[in-house]
Amino acid sequence: MARFVHFRLEAFIAADGRTDRRMQEIARHAGRLAAGLDWLVVRFCALIAAVLVLDVWLGVFVRFVWPLPITWTEELARYLMIWLALLAASAGIARRAHIGVEILPSHLPPEARRWLRLALDVVAFGFFASLVIYGTGFAAKGLERATMIPGWSHFVPFLAVPVSTALCCIQLVLVAIRDFCAAEPPTDATIAGAGEAPRS
Questions:
Q1: What distance in Å separates the CA atoms of residue 95 and residue 34, rounded to the nearest whole number?
Q2: Cα 129 → chain centroid
Q3: Where are the alpha helices (DSSP H) in the chain?
């Protein structure tokens, strides 16, 4: 009888170890996916920032150096800034870099911190998912309104809302899996896989 109990206990411990390894492997995969998506978003944001700088310089040039009938540089700068700011939100989610009160989570035991983080991610996902739905209708209405930029309707700038919030939803799912399945839930993104991305 004692030998049987000992055998069952060893089997349980082995199965528990395999489960832990599987969970950590899932965390690493989710971390890599989150980092890969973040890699793409950050570089697209850098491209937008470069275009924004060129647009502002063009506006200064045609206004003070060589007057030309180009009136849309200021409006384009606004739209680029909107896209840049909203897209960068998903990068903040991937890094757990958004402003938050960490005094409570940092003092909780690992399991409590794991479940609290997951609950907050679910709430945030609901918020961003509602913005995807609202933003899609908002962008559709922009098709009926023209901008000062030739050939552009307000659909292009308004599309920033559903696109960026959809990216936020995807990142929330990935980081929720990454942090929930980690061996110890982190207070930031410093776990295996979180910083892994394609090299530029």
A1: 9
A2: 13
A3: 2-60, 73-94, 110-142, 155-158, 160-180
38-43 long-range contacts, CB within 8 A, separation 24+: 38/90, 38/91, 38/94, 38/95, 38/171, 38/197, 39/197, 39/198, 39/200, 41/87, 41/88, 41/90, 41/91, 41/167, 42/91, 43/200
The span from the CA of 71 to the CA of 80, in Å, is 16
Report pLDDT digits (tens) over 82-126: 999 999 999 999 988 887 777 777 778 888 888 888 999 999 999
Tens-digit pLDDT profile for residues 164-185 = 999 999 999 999 999 888 776 6
> Which of 64-68, 87-91, 146-150 reaches the highest mean pLDDT?
87-91
164/199: higher pLDDT: 164
